[in-house]
Design brief:
Layout: H1 8-22, H2 26-43, H3 54-58, E1 61-62, E2 65-66, H4 69-73, H5 83-94, E3 106-108, E4 117-118, E5 121-127, E6 130-133
Antiparallel strand pairs: 1-2, 3-6, 4-5, 5-6
Helix pairs in contact: 1-2, 1-5, 2-5
Organism: Sporosarcina globispora (Bacillus globisporus)
Protein name: Cell wall hydrolase
Domain Cell wall hydrolase SleB: 24-133
Length: 146
């Protein structure tokens, strides 16, 4: 049983986002970004309350901007999904989870050492250039499910 229900168009959309956000970090980096997308869909708390579909997660607007920089700035995001990224997206939708993104709801590339918190949420680890953050204990039980 998949972690969340999804359609073929969800797979393609997620594949485009994973590539746009982490192509330079290889397949594992793209899987980690995909995991954050699925975690946000599952969490239903904090900034991600009420998100019920993959498109809602990817096109979410916070503070007047898209949550994912690639939607707003990235021309790679607007390219067609390729087979390799579609397979990776499907993997994260179906089962894939790994530290440091296992429970992460946020990631970013600080172009410097990872700060110990991000918007008051604890650092869970780093993969290549991306720093991952999961919710503080007792603030988002949904993030630790699925």
């Amino acid at each position: 049983m998949p972690r969340v229900q999804y359609t073929d168009s969800d797979v393609a959309l997620m594949a485009r986002m994973m590539r746009a956000e982490a192509e330079g970090e290889g397949k594992l980096g793209m899987l980690m970004v995909g995991n954050v997308i699925v975690n946000r869909r599952i969490a239903n708390c904090l900034d991600f309350e009420g998100l019920r579909t993959i498109p809602q997660v990817i096109f979410q607007i916070q503070g007047g901007n898209y949550s994912f920089e690639a939607v707003q700035k990235g021309n790679v995001f607007y390219n067609r999904a390729r087979g390799v990224e579609k397979r990776l997206a499907k993997q994260t939708l179906d089962y894939w989870r790994q530290h440091p993104s296992k429970f992460a709801l946020w990631y970013f590339n600080p172009y410097a050492p990872c700060p110990p918190t991000w918007y008051d949420q604890p650092f869970s680890g780093q993969f290549k250039q991306h720093c991952y953050y999961e919710p503080k204990a007792n603030t988002c039980e949904g993030a630790y499910m699925g």
